[in-house]
Amino acid sequence: MKIITKTITTPTLTPVEIIDITAEIRTAAAESGLQAGTVTVISQHTTAFININEKENCLLEDMVTFLKRLVPRDGNYSHNISPLDGRDNAHSHLLGLFMNTSETIPFSKGELLLGRWQSVFFIELDGPRLSRSILLQFCGI
Q1: According to its UniProt record, which protein family does this protein belong to (predicted)?
Q2: Which residue, 55, 132, 139, is CA-closest to 104?
Q3: What is the distance between the alpha carbons of residues 63 and 112, in angstroms, rounded to a whole number?
Q4: Is residue 83 predicted with pLDDT exceeding 90?
Q5: Letter string b/e over residues 36-57, b meaning 16 or more CB atoms within 10 A of that residue's CB
Q6: Is the pLDDT of residue 111 over 90?
Q7: What dotted CATH number matches 2-140?
């Protein structure tokens, strides 16, 4: 068994953004040299998350609209009174209650074993940010 850890980074451009990171994970899987195992994809942030879903433009727009409606940015949140980093981002943390920080994906022969319609997304809830980090940890043979 071998373990390989890699970090990928991405800037975010909007307050709520869904970024397809599947290609970067596929490349890292192929470069790992491992033939079979799992990769755990983890956001290293408390206001950005990982999700597996379908990549279809109208659906992605619907997802952003849904998130904005579910927990409005302008709500009356105690966290916003004196935030640690000066950002009024309570809504981002609250949305995180419904999301995953990580996903684990099997791979074989260097290829991710995702379904036909599945893509891996990094979901920004507190953008824009100059750089966000996503940790990939491959465990396999």
Answers
A1: Belongs to the UPF0047 family.
A2: 139
A3: 24
A4: no
A5: ebebebbbebebbbbbbbeeee
A6: yes
A7: 2.60.120.460
